[in-house]
Amino acid sequence: RSGMSDYLSLLRFISAELTRGYFLEHNEAKYTERRERVYTCMRIPKELEKLMFFGIFLCLDAFLYVFTLLPLRVFLAMFRFITLPCYGLRDRRLLQPAQVCDILKGVILVICYFMMHYVDYSMMYHLIRGQSVIKLYIIYNMLEVADRLISSFGQDILDALYWTATEPKERKRAHIGVIPHFLMAVLYVFLHAILIMVQATTLNVAFNSHNKSLLTIMMSNNFVEIKGSVFKKFEKNNLFQMSNSDIKERFTNYVLLLIVCLRNMEQFSWNPDHLWVLFPDVCMVVASEIAVDIVKHAFITKFNDITADVYSEYRASLAFDLVSSRQKNAYTDYSDSVSRRMGFIPLPLAVLLIRVVTSSIKVQGVLAYVCVVLFYCGLISLKVLNSIVLLGKSCEYVKEAKMEEKLFNPVLTTTPGKPAGKQQGTFKSSQDENGSTSVTSQPVHQKDNMPSLLVTSNSDQFLTTPDGEEKDISQDSSELKHRSAKKDLLEIDRFTICGNRID
After folding, report:
1. pLDDT tens track for 305-352
2. Cα–Cα distance for residue pair 334/34, rounded to 1 Å
3. Which H or E element spans position 167?
4. Which stretches are tagged as biased composition: Basic and acidic residues (predicted)?
5. Residue 368 is part of which domain span?
6. Contact 232, 172 (CB under 8 A)
7. Which of 27, 8, 24 is CA-nearest to residue 16?
8. Domain assignment of residue 202, yes or no
9. Structurally, how many domains does the chain consist of?
10. I need a surface site. Which of 97, 176, 322, 447 has the fewest CB within 10 A?
């Protein structure tokens, strides 16, 4: 009997397992959330690539600026400096601050370009090619880390140089001088250009290796990046910083691939058939970068419950930087804004590209010089067209995000002995007299006897009033201590994590 009862119990258990039912609607919220996560992961590739596409063209705009408009601006600044005695000195400045910065950038580019002639690319290539595969893999990883660290410190060096050269003379001297800062900037750009050259040479060796083992290992290194990021806690601000870093990394890789193709085509006497040999490897590098970014961002948003709509906010913040840099009282040049936001510093990369192009392409004869002039005119046309399209799309994104009030409602800094209320009234009256703010006119230097009405950036606005409310500026020192740890996207730049942790 006991055996029969056990047998019947077993049959009832099996029958219950086969016919047991359950109702998913009893936990509707949970399964609805799971379904939304799946939809979010499906939307990530589209939204991320829209952000990447916009950001890459922003980097391209800042990069083309170095080759096209910067030489013209340097020429105009030098022309003003030479012809100024003919017109008389109307103000106390020989040159406007923007013109001083342009001349400094141009001189740094020229000096570093001639210094790069003492670096032998061929010797570096054969030196790297003689190393083992594992050693090259370690070197490539070290170069990536060094690039991020030197970029973080390099932008501070350039900013310190620009401010030291344009700081008002009546202020108390609190710096070591313009020349030491200038030498530091030249040294930084030169070392960073050499670092990028070693990266390009290592990638070139990987392309030319017979079994492609080094290239495969370098591409697999991108997937190791997924392990180091997806299992960490991310907030929206941290993800914004990572997105900017990915944009910069992808654009830099495109320029490195261009350098590798130029060097290889030169070695094969510009045979177009060899370009098709390089094409599969180039596609593999680009495809691996896109795949890694999509997988990384998809799982980061999944694990941290971040919606795909956040990428449109990131795009609006980048667009805000572009629009604000075109205002009359812009607080920085747009290329410098991109450098701080994404960590993309165009000067070292431009020095290296000019060095590679001039050594790979020989210009001989009148027809060759005519082609160079036409190519330069084409670059200027591309820069202008890209800037116009980007400015139009940026205005569109800013309007969609309803950020116009942040753009046209600047915060004024107080002068000693002047209350904030009086300055606000002065600014309103002057704004009514001048009419609407132009996005193309140049900033005008104010007279020294006028009250200081410094229009700060919106990033400064969020530093002083993070909640968006009008507060008494005289209480800023006490309120900064109790400020909320949450930061606005316009306040986050590429190097925030290097300086302090984003909570």
Report:
1. 888 889 999 999 898 888 887 776 666 666 677 777 888 889 999 999
2. 42
3. none
4. 471-485
5. 37-84+92-409
6. no
7. 8
8. yes
9. 1
10. 447
